[in-house]
Amino acid sequence: MKKKEIILFIVIGIIVLWMVLRFTCLHMFRVPSSAMENTIPRGTYIVAWKMNYTPKQNEIIVYHFPEGDTILVPESPVSYYTMKRMLNKNEFNSTYSIAIVPLNKRQLRVGRCVGLPHDRIRLINSRLYVNDKPYLNPDCKKLYLVKMKDPEILSNDFLKNMNIKPDDVLHDRGTVGLCITDKQFARLSVINEIDSVLICNSIPGTENQSIFPFTKELGWTKDDFGEVTIPAKGEKIHLTKGNIALYDRLIRVYEQNDLKILDDKIVINGKVTEYYIPKMDYYFIVNDNRDYSVDSRFWGFLPENHVYGKILKKFIGGRK
């Protein structure tokens, strides 16, 4: 066989192998949001492995956006479910129609898997705890309010020295908001020209329409959340009127059961019950860019059939 024929044979083999992998095991897409900004910038190209994958704790995974099963027409930056909670029925119906999206066509997102089946999740004053232990993530960014003696201190050189990106600086009436890590916060706190650095947390009871499970009785926020236990396949859940909101979507949508509350009784598939046994494992996503991320704090548990794959390779692209 001639040298040119060998090279052609190898090239064709590589192309065929790539096509097989592309349609069976690999997928490339562009990260659409800044939810993982400190770790994976918006616009990054991701190559994902999508075969026989089970997430591990602290892994950054690729998943189908759970609330992407129904989209608004005309398109809106707010999800269908959030809009339904915001508007009354007449307002909604006069403004929008909807389109149903099958699972394999839903938007792909990347996120940090902080909780596995059986794990207990809680946030207190924006600090994440898993099974009562602090979850330490040096890449996590939070919004801090900074008051300073001299606003000119925030020069480009200062920001560069502190490794703070221009996009992470917000100005409002003499107060500056900075999205920074714990390490950056510690460095800022000892600078003489800065009067104070305060973490910016949500006020309890102010986010009932946007924070899972969307009940004012709990008063949870993105910064003070839980405790919740992540459902596990085959593990019985005790249902009550007080906790059914946590499992409503799991039972009705993800696992396709008929669920009703009749005279304070929980009825699943026509039978009164106090228990439910999940058919799938579930996970919990909390992203690194805490104040600019729509993750499990906003839509709840991630079903195992929404897990798309693991990240094999990242290619940094331009922001859009």
Describe this structure in words.
The chain has 320 residues and is α+β, with helices and mostly antiparallel strands. The chain has two domains: 28-137 and 203-315, Umud Fragment, subunit A; 146-197, no CATH class. It has seven helices and 22 strands. It has helices at 3-24, 80-86, 89-95, 156-161, 182-189, 244-254, 296-299; strands at 26-30, 45-49, 60-64, 70-73, 97-100, 108-115, 120-124, 127-130, 133-134, 142-148, 169-172, 175-180, 194-199, 225-229, 237-238, 259-262, 265-268, 271-272, 275-276, 282-285, 302-303, 307-315. 27% of the residues are buried.
Map the helices and strands.
Elements: H1 3-24, E1 26-30, E2 45-49, E3 60-64, E4 70-73, H2 80-86, H3 89-95, E5 97-100, E6 108-115, E7 120-124, E8 127-130, E9 133-134, E10 142-148, H4 156-161, E11 169-172, E12 175-180, H5 182-189, E13 194-199, E14 225-229, E15 237-238, H6 244-254, E16 259-262, E17 265-268, E18 271-272, E19 275-276, E20 282-285, H7 296-299, E21 302-303, E22 307-315
- Helicity range of the residues? 10-25%
Which whole number gives the mean pLDDT?
Answer: 88
Which sheet architecture does the biggest sheet show? 7 strands, antiparallel
Structural class: alpha+beta
- How do the helices and strands follow one another from N- to C-terminus? HEEEEHHEEEEEEHEEHEEEHEEEEEHEE
Any idea what the shape is? Answer: globular
Descriptive tags:
Umud Fragment, subunit A, 7 helices, alpha+beta, 2 domains, 320 residues, 20% helix, 4-stranded antiparallel sheet, 7-stranded antiparallel sheet, single chain
